[in-house]
Amino acid sequence: MSVKSVAAQRTKTQEIKNRLSEEFRAGAANARLSQPTPAMPDHLDRSVRDFIRHRVEVEPYWFQRIELFPGYFSPGWSNPPTEKMPYFGLPDDLTGKRVLDVGCAEGFFSFEAEGRGAREVIAIDSYPDSVRRFNIVRDARQSNATAYLTNVYDLKPSTFGTFDLVLFYGVFYHLKHPQLALERILDVCSGEMLFQTHVYDEPAIKDTPWAKFYPHGFMSGKDGESYDPTVFWLYNPAACIAMLDHVGFIGTEVLSNDPNPFVLRARVQAARPGIPPNQMLAPWS
Q: At the top level of CATH, which class does the domain 44-270 belong to?
C-alpha cells in the first residue's frame, strides 16, 4: 500500500471520528452511559417468553445471534455457530474447568462453555451495553455464567482467580496495549488459552513479525459499512505467535488460518487447576 493510499485511509477514518465526536458533544449534556429499557405494559400479566422478547427487541444493537429459548434468537449480525465454532477450537468437554471469556459480548462462548460442563464461567467486557445484553441472555437461559464490567488490563489472580481455559476471541486488535493484555492473561491462565484475532498479512514478509497501526479506527462490519474507533493494531500471524512466545506462553499451535479465522492455542509452562480467589484475603478492599 502506498504512502498516499495510507494517508487517504487515515484521513477518512479521522473525519468520521471527528464528526461522530462532535455529534456526541452536541448532545452530551442530555446523554446517558446506559440507555433505559422501555417498560413493558402489563408485564406481570404476560408470559416469561413475552418478557424475554421485549427485552431483546428494545435493544438497539446485537452483535451475536444467540438462542435464548428454543427457536428464539437474538437478532445479531454475527452467527457464531457457522462463522466461528468450526474454527475456534472450543473443547467438546470442559467438565470441571474454570473458564474465562475475555471480551464476551453477549456471551455466546460463555454459554457454550457452560453447556460443555465448565464448573464456572467468568466473562468480562469493557462495554456496558455488552454486559447488559449478556445478562438478558443469562436470565433467559437460566445460566450461572457471570459477566463483569471490566477490561483485560484489570485481570489479577487476587480478584478473579486462575482459569483452566481462557477464551481470548476477537479482542486483540481492539487493544492499545496488547502486550500488557497478554501478560495479564498469563497471570490468570493456569492451563490453556484460545486466541483469535483479525490479521493483516503481507506476503513479502510472511515470516517476519509485523503489524499495521490504525490511529483513527477502522471500517468494520460484514461489508466494511460500520466505523469502529476501537481498532488499533492488526498483526500478521508471525507477530501474534512471537508475542505469545515473548510473554511466556509455550506450545503455540495454529488451529485455523486464511481463508478461515486465524486461531491459535497456547499453554502455560506449568499447568495447574484453575481456582477462584481466596475471598478471606479481601481482594476488593
A: alpha beta
